[in-house]
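Folds abound. Consider this:
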Amino acid sequence: MERLLAWLEQRDWDEGATLIADLVAAAAATRHGVLPVVDGDGALIGVVSHHALREAILSRSDLDAVIVAADLAESVDALSPRDSLRHALAVMNARGLDALPVVETNGASFRVTGLPGRSDVLRVYEQALSHAIKPRNPPATFSCRRRSSSLSRLSR
C-alpha cells in the first residue's frame, strides 16, 4: 500500500485524467487486485479491478487516449475505519473483490486512507486465533534417539 500511495502522490493529477497506461503502472505498484479511483479532492469515485483493466487493454482501440480511470471505475461500498474485519470480509465476498478502500470522513470531505485486502484480514484473524487457542500445557514430545548398542545387535 505504501508503494501505491507514494506512486499516487508523485502524479500530477487532473480530475479524471488517469489514462490506462497510468493504471497499468499503478497496478504494478500494488499487490491488490483493485485500484481506488479518487477525484481531485481525494473523494472516492470507485475502484478499477485488474479484470476491468485487463479487458480495457485487450480491447485496444483509438479510444485508449481518452479512456480514463473514472470510465473504468465501478462504484463500491467503501469501508469506514470503524467497520469490523468481519464486515470487510463479507463485503469483499459479496462483491468478489480482494480489497476495499477505507474512506475517512472529516466534515464534508472524504479521503481514502487505506486499502486492506482479503489476505490482510485473514492474517489478522489467524493471529487472533493463534493467541486465543494457545495450549495451556505444551504437547508432549517424543524422543527418537537411536540406541547404538541395540542397532548393532540387530545388524549382526
Q: What stands out?
A: Residues 34 and 49 are 4 Å apart (CA to CA). DSSP finds seven helices and four strands in the chain. Strands lie at 34-38, 44-49, 102-106, 109-114.
